[in-house]
């Protein structure tokens, strides 16, 4: 399968990324379910709290047995019923439709039982009053001694005491004692006609109390069912949340395991696919550098290294043809270098740069003109591809060297800037746009802050200022290794304008920060060390100033100060 390098890299990155995305999506779904279930748990807790409030009012109602506490009980029941009715059908479906149906049914039964019990309590009041009235009649009868001789005052008083205990405690022991006393009274009934109404009223009391006890038991049993239903709903929702959390942990663990195993495997294989042809080319290059000029790069993969290998072999063919000429040129350069080393110390670094640039510029111009002449005079039909490629290579490389020489001359030249009225914001925006288009700022989060200086026009050389900002921004990108934050702030300060360029890169070591504007000083593996020196020179030619603040691993800020009144000078 013929894959390009970028295809291989996409595959190597896409597989671990896909694992992470799938794991994240599944985890997000579970977390979203947990969030929704938390709302259901709150509803369940509200139901349970309201049921407990109803049960509390139930106890008060059973204790006091009056209209006031009965109304409190009904109000609590109504609040619970309203809460259930306010819950949406979708929520009921999610939590458990059967549970809510059972809850409504039991609540209806519960409320109905309470109504019947309250009516029974009202009947109890009349029955109790009747018993008391009939009891007082018997007491009066005994006191007037118009009764059967079997009745005694002590017996009647004891019977009334048992009656009051039963009304007060309504327990089994009081009931049995009252029934015993009533049995004795029944045995006397043939001799005491006046005792019959009392016996009947007490039996009515037994009957009404029995009905009330049944209603009480039914009410309490139904209330317990309400508690059980709401507890079950709350517990079940919490269990569901626990299940979702466990599932989320498992998904994250699986995704982590896959990332730690499958991810490195794909990255390793991708690296091998990408690096293998490059390593072969590097090995050939090393052997050629040792003098084995007859070797050529192997052409195997049909990816980007294929074109590289073809160009590399073409270059080697050209090198063999021009080897003697290059040896002669190198000898001349070595002689020139020896003369420079042994010459007297130049008066300044600028004079040295100017001298070197002018010395190199003449032979370079000759080579450039010669290559241009060869290219123009060359017959396209008769010349071989190797010759045409060689001439093109000499031409392009000469242009590259001429650019380096131009930088040296730019550094050493004494000519002042071509001052024209320019918009500083537009200049910087133009640079940012160019660097964004070229991809240099593709992974950099940059921001231009002009809140205090939206429109600044100064007299300056726009080309030179572009060179200044391109150098500083490029250095910032290199320091951040292509990723980080870049902030550019433009502000007016009296008759000056200041531009701060801040990055989040590696920073500059304190021991070298004082030398960064020195010509030919650089901390990079590749570079002439002229970039910041040229920046410093251009700023000074504009009567400006440039300072730097930096801290290792925290970033660097360059501050450029330019006069605004140049345009009025």
**SSE sequence, one letter per element:** HHHHHHHHHHHEHEEHEEHEE
Q: What fold name goes in the CATH topology slot of the largest domain?
A: Substrate Binding Domain Of Dnak, Chain:A, Domain 2
Compute the CA-based radius of gyration.
51 Å
Query: Could you list the spans in which at least 5 consecutive residues all have pLDDT below 50?
Result: 338-347
Strand content: 5-15%
CATH architecture of the largest domain: Up-down Bundle
Q: Can you describe what's shown?
A:
The chain has 569 residues and is α+β, with helices and mostly antiparallel strands. The chain has three domains: 16-149 and 194-290, Substrate Binding Domain Of Dnak, Chain:A, Domain 2; 322-412, Helix Hairpins (Orthogonal Bundle); 420-568, Histidine kinase-like ATPase, C-terminal domain (Heat Shock Protein 90), CATH 3.30.565. It is 70% helix and 8% strand. The protein has 14 helices and seven strands. The protein has helices at residues 5-64, 67-86, 89-95, 97-144, 153-169, 172-188, 196-289, 304-321, 323-342, 349-377, 385-412, 424-437, 462-479, 531-541, and strands at residues 420-423, 444-449, 457-460, 484-493, 496-503, 545-551, 555-563. The chain has a five-stranded mixed beta sheet, with helices on one face. The protein has a two-stranded antiparallel ribbon with strand order 1-3. A hairpin with a 2-residue loop joins strand 4 (484-493) and strand 5 (496-503). Helix 1 (5-64) packs antiparallel against helix 7 (196-289), helix 2 (67-86) packs antiparallel against helix 4 (97-144) and helix 5 (153-169) packs antiparallel against helix 6 (172-188). The longest helix has 94 residues, at 196-289. The radius of gyration is 51 Å and the shape is elongated. The model is unreliable at 338-347 (pLDDT under 50).
